[in-house]
Amino acid sequence: MTQTVLVTGATSGFGRACAEIFAKKGWDLVVCGRRMDRLKDLQKTFKQVAVHAVQCDVRERTQVEALVKGLPKSHGDIDLLINNAGLALGMKPAQDAKLEDWEIMVDTNIKGLMYVTHALLPNMVRRGRGHIINMGSIAGSWPYPGGNTYGATKAFVGQFSNNLRADLHGTGVRVSTIEPGLAESEFSVVRFHGDRKQADAVYEGTEPLTPVDIAEMVYWLADRPAHVNINRLEVMPVCQSWGPFSINRNSV
Length: 252
Ligand code: NDP
Ligand code: 8X3
Known about the structure:
By secondary structure, this protein is of the alpha/beta class. The chain contains eight helices and seven strands. The mean pLDDT is 98. Bound molecules: NADPH dihydro-nicotinamide-adenine-dinucleotide phosphate and 2-hydroxyethylsulfonic acid.
């Protein structure tokens, strides 16, 4: 039986790569994001499967609810939700950060992910099957200067996923989080408000993870047998690890 995956933030980066790999494996797709031209492009590209494309800003609860209510019969039963839509905005210390950026990250990474999950869960529970894969980040576990609200939103993703698993005990619905480190996509261009030079500097001299790397891991998570739940998968490129604690040597 053909399975159906709903990917949020399918217009770029990890989400687009996920759409591609699942299409190649024969899954039908529901793809969403704000850029309709790119969604239409996905429909044209993945002709071998049924692709339902919906323009949706996950920050808007009514848009998310309309997306789920409006799913055509062919795509009505979502077997897998990839809660991927998200962003970082800014990397300044908290005391210099823009409150508007913080609000957008909370509205997208936390509230948007909640809205989509809440709208799709009842049908998964009713069917006694389904899988939710949430896109976390190493920033949710490991602090770094400038990570402030972004990292905190991803910490929410990790704990929300754990708590979902506790609530869904006995329902057959699976929940996993994937927590990537440095990965090259449009992420840094967005983070630095379109400043490509600053974005490119993030990856300079490195071999970062790619969207395909992440999509392959997401597919692996989804492809485990139905009795197996991978709770959390943290992944970094080899070029990335931890630094020392910062110590202020002018503190006496
Ligand atoms: P991209 O910027 O390439 O992709 C982000 C996607 O999210 C786009 O498709 C964008 O679509 C969508 N999106 C953003 N805001 C909204 C919104 N309000 N409503 C609907 N869709 C939205 O970045 P990545 O692929 O790298 O990021 C994907 C996820 O992975 C994010 O959650 C990010 O935090 C996380 N992540 C990224 C890492 C990295 O280093 N790249 C590492 C760890 C985690 P559109 O603009 O069309 O709406
Ligand atoms: C993105 C990875 O390290 O830039 O979530 O926060 S990091």
